[in-house]
Amino acid sequence: MLSWIAALLAGILTAHLAQRWCFPYFWRDALFLTRVMRYGARLEFYKRSSRIVTVVDRFVQQAQRIPEKAFLIYEGVTHSYGELEERSNRVARVFEDAVKKGDTVALLMSNEPDFISVWFGFCKLGCAVAFLNTNIKSRSLLHCFNCCGAKLLVVGADLLETLEDIIPSLQEDRIEVWCLTRESPRPGVRSLLDKMESASQEPIPAERRSVRCLKTPTLYIFTSGTTGLPKAAVITHLQSLKAAGGFWAYSATGSDVIYTPLPLYHSAASLVGIGGTIELGATCVLKKKFSASQFWHDCRKHNVTIFQYIGEVCRYLCNQPVAGNEKDHRVRMGVGNGLRLDVWREFLGRFGEIRMCEIYGSTEGNLCFMNHVGKIGAVGRSNFFYKLIFKYDLVKYDLVREEPVRDHNGFCQHVQKGETGLLLSKICSQSPFFGYAGSKQLTEKKILRDVFVKGDTYFNTGDLMAEDEDNFICFKDRVGDTFRWKGENVATTEVTEILGLVDFIQEANVYGVQVPGNEGRAGMAAVIVRPECTFDGKKLFNHVLKELPSYARPLFIRLQESMEMTSTFKQQKFALVESGFNPSSVSDPLYILDHSEKSYIPLTPSIYDGIVNAQHKV
């Protein structure tokens, strides 16, 4: 008997050691996948029944269950679930006869509690809501309305002046403009706050917002792309519910306090942040705008346990002067994306062993990776079972031709383990791609067909990734006409079109270059000056300051006499990106955007050295 027990224990020990050696992440993978599958089972139940519970339905449920609990804390004021429920009901009552179920309305607001009140108020009327980026300018704003077909706009009081140039155009198109003020701020703009205060707080019947299909659009979130103007990514109820499960998948609970300093018009803050807070029944500390100097003070003041980030947020925090109480906080988890490996290590060293949970996924994409293990530098983790659920592949990519490499049969080629390749995600019933509103061409450009067999279709993420021997996935770079700077996607075609409006510019080629010590890529433009003109740094400075948001303004200008083109007559960017902006190695004249001079000034070797040594800020 004793020998049998000893043999059993020895077998168990051997199996345990074998598991630890050969499958070190087995139990963590199993636990995480179990949570993901539990959440997925709920969504599958919704698909197969008429009992679809949307994010707004979940909010109503939580407001009934925990009406007195803090939902939002904003600028020191606490707003309970019940209070936000009643306020969103007032918004719905104001517009219940003005809009129909299925209409689209637009929202141009900074972070504030009424962003959510207005958003949910229209959702309770069965409307889809288009979130407008508060940085985009007049020309792009008009394009956004054409994309999503919105016939009503609600604008925050602090953003009304950004519409001055286009209000006549909106009125011509019969688009109603409402402002969150108590009195009409100007002719043609209606006030909303006074109407809300006098409206009933009784809920609109649930039938008005009910949906029978998870693929019904609920939001339009605008993302920069290769077309040059913002694209309206269609966000369905299915996508919003998936995003709302992010915190839960990372084992967050209703007792957590979540800090959200990111803009609500982005999917990270709205879908993952607000949606995730609601799913848990937790509390969200909403910041109007990220402040590195106030970040840890806010976390200590409100007992924050989880914060949302993009890579730039963590870098800004690491750039702050060292303080003695940096580890004096209750933060245990960060959830976000784009955290650079060196910043990740420095962040943990300075601020404590915070579990950094990277999430990879674009607003419009059909694939998500989550680094549930927390390995530094990885955006996600895969395994055999994950690949059964989510069909993705890494394929060889030609950086010069800017297209996937295909074999003699016309099919894409897989990369080897550890090799960098273009990430593609199969489009199927489990992972649908809903595309963009306004044009089928925009959607088609993101689809690759006949990838491995005739007739298959894949979503082209536009991202170069690598998967190591342990199945950790690492982000390497972006391809195509979009790069990322200051946490925002920059469409090179849009910037090129804006630069083309300057009278002395004949042709422009915009691309992103790496700047030491900074996340993403900074904007740079190779420019050909018209023969009869000369380069005018002040004129160009004033133009980009007026027409482009700060993150999209080219920091560097390179004057050229001719542009290199590809065999398909596309502007060649690869060589320009590789050569960068070092005046010692680039023979063409170089300029840098200088706010103190209010001009583009010559980029000298001393300025370049200052940038490399982090003495000259960009």
TrEMBL record:
InterPro entries: AMP-bd_C, AMP-bd_C_sf, AMP-binding_CS, AMP-dep_synth/lig_dom, ANL_N_sf
Broad class of the protein's primary localization: membrane
Entry keyword annotation includes Isomerase: no
Gene Ontology CC annotations of this record: endoplasmic reticulum membrane; plasma membrane
Name of this protein: long-chain-fatty-acid--CoA ligase
Boundaries of every AMP-dependent synthetase/ligase domain copy: 60-380
Major enzyme class: ligase
Reactions catalysed, as given in the entry: a long-chain fatty acid + ATP + CoA = a long-chain fatty acyl-CoA + AMP + diphosphate; a very long-chain fatty acid + ATP + CoA = a very long-chain fatty acyl-CoA + AMP + diphosphate; tetracosanoate + ATP + CoA = tetracosanoyl-CoA + AMP + diphosphate
PROSITE patterns found in the cross-reference section: AMP_BINDING
Membrane topology: Multi-pass membrane protein
GO BP terms, alphabetized: long-chain fatty acid import into cell
Signal peptide: 1-18
Family, as annotated: Belongs to the ATP-dependent AMP-binding enzyme family.
Subcellular location: Cell membrane
Record-annotated AMP-binding enzyme C-terminal domain positions: 494-570
Keywords annotated in UniProt: Cell membrane, Fatty acid metabolism, Ligase, Lipid metabolism, Lipid transport, Membrane, Nucleotide-binding, Signal, Transmembrane, Transmembrane helix, Transport
